[in-house]
Amino acid sequence: MSAAATEVADEVAAELSELADLLADLPAAAWDEPSLCPGWRVREVVAHMTLPMHASAPVVVLGLLRARMRWDVLADRRARLDARQTPEQLLDALRAPRMQAWTPPGGGATGALVHAVIHGLDITEALGLRRRPPVARTRLVLDGLTAPRSLSHFGVALHGLQLRAQDLDWSYGTGRVVRAPAVDLALVLSGRRSASP
């Protein structure tokens, strides 16, 4: 693994550990609060984040076949199933070394970091928690989100816009300038927030 990939992998582990520490202090009722993911509570988001700890590769493939190769259908079914676990079990999954070393197929460490940070924000933003990832980590996420594969995955229309971070030296695109904190731009790029004023 290159030094750059190792750095990103370390950020993934840190993000998951920090999120687990934050969630461990939540009251039990917060796990049933809605997240930014439509139809998912906090517990479904964490269950989705930790899917590799709940289902083996053959189980996932079988689930995909049953879902007629629709990943969104499989992801929703698995999240609802795995969310039946206790908060303690879900937190253990977030902290597991195997989870923290996991990378999505074709996504590498950057894909894992985008997955961890964005779903973490799905929880913390919905609950009104003040926790935000460090700026250096968010820069890695912004770079990952503006890769062609991510842009097509999230389907965010950015034509005629330039996104410019207020808290670090980062920008993307050309056109009307949209200035916002880096984390807010990550929410725009992942389809959680509109770029419109």
From TrEMBL:
It comes from the Bacteria. Signal peptide: none annotated. It holds the Pfam family MDMPI_N. Residues 13-96 form the Mycothiol-dependent maleylpyruvate isomerase metal-binding domain. One of its GO terms (molecular function) is isomerase activity. Keywords: Isomerase. NCBIfam families: maleylpyruvate isomerase family mycothiol-dependent enzyme. This is Maleylpyruvate isomerase family mycothiol-dependent enzyme.
